[in-house]
Amino acid sequence: MTSTTTGAPVGVAPPGPTTPATPAAKSRRSGGHLGSYLLVRFLLIFPTIFILVTTVFVLMRATGDPITASLGGRLTHDQLQERIHEAGYDRPILVQYVEYLGNVFRGDFGTTISDNRPVTEVVLTYGTATLELAFYALLVALLVGIPLGRIAAARRDKGVDASLRISGILAYATPVFFAGILLKLIFSVWLGWLPVAGRASTDAQIEIQRNGSDTGIFLIDAISTGDPSVVLDVLEHAILPALALGLLTGGIFLRLVRTNVIGTLSTGYVEAARSRGVNERRLLRQHAWRPALVPIITVIGLQVALLLSGAVLTEKTFEWKGLGFQLVQYLLARDFVAVQGIVVLLAVVVALTNFIVDVIAALVDPRIRY
Amino acid sequence: MTALTPLDGPDVVHAEPAAPEHVALWKRLPVVRHVRTSVGLQRTMLVIGIVLMLIFVITAAFAPLLAPYGYAQLSSGDVNFGSQQPPSAENLLGTTVGGYDVLSRTIWGARPAFLVIVVAVVLSIFAGVALGLVSGYFGGWVDRVLVVIADALFAFPSLLLAIVVAIVISGGQSSMWGGVMAAAISLSVVMIPQYFRVVRAEVVRVKAEAFVESARVIGSGHLRIMGRHVLRNSTRTLPLILTLNCSEAVLTLAGLGFLGFGIEPTAAADWGYDLSKSLSDVTSGIWWTAVPPGVAIVLTVLGLTLVGESLNDLADPRLRRRRAAKAAAPLSPVTAVPGGVATDRVPGVESIDDLEGPTDLFDGPFDERSDR
Question: Which of A146-155, A204-213, A271-280 shows the lowest per-residue confidence on average (mean pLDDT)?
C-alpha cells in the first residue's frame, strides 16, 4: 500500500527495501528534515490542483460551450452566437484555458449561467450546510468505527469479530442513498419519530432567520436563538442524514482500524511485551494502538473525498440544501459553468485536506519524510 | 455449480503466471486456489461471495428468461399494470410510479450493471497495466509525471469525476449504451490510476531482480523483458483490485443513476434511476419501489466485496499467518482442507510477504515500517 494511503504523490515515503527507485530511498540518505518535507509536500498541492483543474476544463469543454448547453433551444441561433461571443467562448480554446487558469488562480471560479451568481458565493452559501453534514457524519463514523474496530481486532476470529466484519462489509456494500431511503422509511414514515427531509422545519427556519445570526451552520444558528425547541428541531433533522452517511463511512473505518491494529498486535515488540506478561488490554491500549494510528489517520483523511461524494448523494436523499444538492440542481439545469466551478473548488478542498493529513501524519510519525 | 465454472473463467484467467508445481491448472486459478487455501470464516465468506457473484452473472445473462415482463413493459395482455400498485399476483413486487413491474426491472437491471463492470474493468486494466509497466520499467521524468497525475486523480472524489465524464459522453440522460459507456469510461478514469500504481510498484520491485538482469545480459530487448519477465511477475495483486473495483463500478453506476445521469427507463433498467424515482414514494409509505433495486445493489456489491475482501485477507500475511497456524493445529493433518496448509508452503504463493500491499484502501504501509 505504498502511496495509496497518501493523497499525495509518493508523499508518505513507503519504506523501502523493495522500492529502491522511489524517492523513499533517497530520503533516508538525505536525512529528511521535517521542514523540507513540509515545503515539498506543500508545493505538491499546486501540480495536483493544476492537473485536476486542467482535467475538468478539458472534459467540460469537450462537450462544447456552456452557453449552448444551458440555453440551446431556448434562444435563436443569432442570440446564442451573440451570448457566446460576449462570454468569449468563440476564442481559441487555448486562450480560454489560459484565461481560466488565471481566473482560478485569482480565486474567480466563474459566474453561473442559470442564476448569474459567482460560483464562490454559491459555494460559500451552500458549503456550510455540506460542512455541517460532513462533520456530523464524520463524528458518527469515528464514534462507531474506532471502538468497534478495536474490539474486532482484540476479539479477532471470534464471533464478535466475524459479525463486526460482516457489518463493515455490508456498510460498504450499501449505497448511501439506499441506506438513507431505508432509514427514512423506518424512522420517519413507519415509526414517525423523525422528520422526513430538510435541515429544519419551516417554523424553526423562520425563527433562525428572524434571529439574524447567519453562519449557515444551522446548529450554531439555532443555539444562538436560545430556543431549545429550535435546537431540538435542527438536531432531529440532522440525525438520519448523519447516520446514513456516518454509518457507511464508519464501516470503512472499522475495517481500517481492525486491519492496522491486528498488524501492530502481531509485531515483534508486542510479542515481546506479551512474553513479559503484559496483559492483553494493556497491550492493545498502550503498545498496539498508537503505532496503528498513523495509517489510520492517513486513510481517514483520504475518506474526505469519499465523504464529499457521499454528501452529494445524502443531500439529494434528504433534501439537505447543501453544495451537493445545489450541484444536482445545476446539473439538471445544464449549467456547466456552475458544475465546473463547484467540482474544481471541491477538488481544491480535497487537495488541501490531503496536505493537512500528510502534515499530521508526519508530525505523529517521525519516520515519514519525503 | 460445476456447470457454471466457465462463467467466471474469463474474469479470472489473466491473473496468475503458472506456478511450477503439478497441481491441475484449474486448481491454481485465483479464486479457485483461494477457496482451497482458505479455512473457516474466511472460506464461508469467500464461498458466499462467489455464490452471490454467480447469481448476479446468471441474472444478467438470462434476464429475458427470468423476468416476468420486459423492463419497459406497461401492460400485460390488455391490462395496464397501473402506477404504484402494491405487490400482487400479476406484479409480484408491485409497480413503479411510471407503471413498470418492479421485479422485472430489478432483474433486468443486472444487465447494465454487468456491462459497466466488464467495460470499465477491461478499459482500465489494459490502460493501467500498460502505463504502469512502461512507467515503472523506464522510470525517469515520464514516470514522475505519471505518478503525480495518478495521485491527483486518485485523490479526487470519484463520483464527481464520473459526473463530469458522464456529461461529456452522454450529455446527461441517455440510451443504454450511452449510459453504460458514460459510467464505464468515467470509472476507468478513476480506476486506471489504481492499476497504474499497483503495477508500477510491482514492476519497480521486479525489475531489480536477478532474472531481469540476466535477461538483459543475454541481450533481450526491452519489449521482451517487459512482457515476459517483468509483466508476468507483476500481476499478482490484480485479481484483488479487480474485484474491489467491480463493486465500486456498481456503486458508481447506481450513484450516477440516482443523481439523474442514469439510463432512460425505456432504454434499460437502471437500479440507481429506479431508486431516485422511489424517493418520493417512500414518503408516502410505498416500500416496494425502493427496496428491491436497493437490495439488488447491496447483494451484488456484497458478493464482489466478499470475494475481494477474502482475496485480500488471504494475500495479507498479517491477516493470515495466525489463522493458518491455528487452523493447522486443531484439524487432523489428513482431513485438513486439501492443500490448505500445504499450498501455503508452495514457493509461488509464499513470497506474498513482499506483496507490500498496494492492494486496497484499507491497510496502511504499516507492516513494513513496524518491522524496522
Answer: A204-213
Question: Any CB–CB contact under 8 A between B367 and chain A?
Answer: yes
Decide if B45 contacts B310 (C-beta within 8 A).
yes
Which among A50, A255, A259 is the top mutation candidate for probing chain B, defined by the most B β-carbons within 10 Å of its own β-carbon?
A259
B167 with A185: Cβ contact below 8 A: no
pLDDT of B339 higher than 60? no
pLDDT tens for B124-162 read 888 888 888 888 888 778 888 888 888 777 767 777 777
DSSP A333-367: TT-HHHHHHHHHHHHHHHHHHHHHHHHHHHHH-TT
- Interface residue B206 vs chain A (CB under 8 A): no
Cβ-contact B118, B181 below 8 angstroms: no
User: In whole angstroms, what is the distance from residue A16 CA to residue B205 CA?
Assistant: 10
Residues facing residue A118 across a β-bridge: A111
What local confidence, expressed as pLDDT, does residue B30 receive? 65
**Alpha-carbon gap, residue A96 to A84, rounded angstroms:** 12
Give the three cell numbers for residue A36.
523540507
pTM of the model: 0.74
Q: Kindly report, residue by residue over A110-139, the tens digit of the pLDDT.
A: 777 777 788 888 888 888 888 888 888 888
How far apart are alpha carbons A322 and B16 in whole angstroms? Answer: 47
Q: How far apart are CA A283 and CA A275, in angstroms?
A: 11
Question: Do B148 and A51 count as a contact with CB atoms less than 8 A apart?
Answer: yes
Question: Nearest by CB to A266, which of B155, B283, B322?
Answer: B322
Q: What is the mean pLDDT of chain B?
A: 71
- Option in B139, B298, B322 nearest A173 (CB): B298
- What is the CA angle A11-A14-A15, rounded to 5? 145
Q: Is the ipTM here above 0.85?
A: no
